[in-house]
Amino acid sequence: MNKEYVLSKEEPSGSESSKIEYLPKVRAIYQAVFQLLVEGADINSLTVSEITKKAGIGKGTAYEYFSDKEEMIGRAICYNVEVFCQKIYEGTRNEKNLYDKINYVLLAMERKVPDANCILRLIHIISENSVTSSRFKEEQKLFGEMPVVGVVKRVLDDVQKGREVLSEEKSAYLVMSLYSRILGYGMLLNDERYSKAPEREAMRALICRGICKEVEEIETL
User: How many CB atoms lie within 10 A of CB 34?
Assistant: First the structure.
C-alpha cells in the first residue's frame, strides 16, 4: 500500500497550522466520504464501493492509498473536520475581542450545518466501541488533538496575549468549558426550536456573554 498521501507538506510555523497538499485522488475520497455522511449514510455500513463511486475512481485505486474502509473513513473525517476548523480559526483572527470571535465560530457553524454535524459525528464515533471507532481513534492520533479543541486553544491564546499567563489548570478548564459550549450549540442547530434566526441569535448572545464572563472570572481567581 502506498502511504504517500500528500504532494507536499510544510512544517508548522508559530501558531500557524501545517500546509498540506493532498494527492487529488486521496482528496476525492475524503470529500466523497464527507458527502455521503451529509447525505445520511450510516458510517458503519458504508462500503468502499460506495465511497469510490462517489469519488469517481476505481475501487482498486483506493487500496493503493488505504488498507481498509476504516482507515479511509477515519482519515476522511479527520481531514474534513480539520479543514472546517482551520477556516473557522482564520476567520476569528479578523475579530478583535473574545465575544466577536466566539460569535464568529457559532455563526460559521450555522452557515455550515453539514460540517458542524460532521464534527458531532466525530464525537459520537469516539464514544462508540465499534471497529470503525477503534480505527478512527488510531487515525486521530496521526492528526494530533481534536481540531475543535485546537481552535478553542488558539482563540484563547489570541485574546490573552499581553495578559498574565494563566495556570495550566485554569487554561485546561477554559478549553474544556468553551469546547463543551460550542459543541452544545452545534447540537442545538438540529433542534426545531432553533431553526429560526431570532432564536439562534438570542442563544448565540447568551453563549458569548457567558463565555466572556467565565474567562474574566477565571483570570481574577
Answer: 23
Distance separating alpha carbons of residues 123 and 183, to the nearest angstrom:
9
Dihedral of CA 121/183/27/112: which sign?
Answer: positive
Neighbours of 21 (CB within 10 A): 11
Q: Cα(220)–Cα(192) distance, rounded to whole angstroms?
A: 39
Cell (9 digits) for 147: 481540531
Residue type, 95: E
Contacts of 68 (CB under 8 A, 6+ apart): 135
What pLDDT tens digit does each residue of the chain (221 aa) get?
445 555 544 433 333 444 567 889 999 999 999 889 888 888 778 899 999 999 999 999 999 898 888 888 888 887 888 888 889 999 999 999 999 999 999 998 888 877 777 667 666 666 666 666 666 666 666 556 677 888 999 999 999 888 888 899 999 999 999 989 988 898 888 888 888 889 999 999 999 999 999 999 998 88
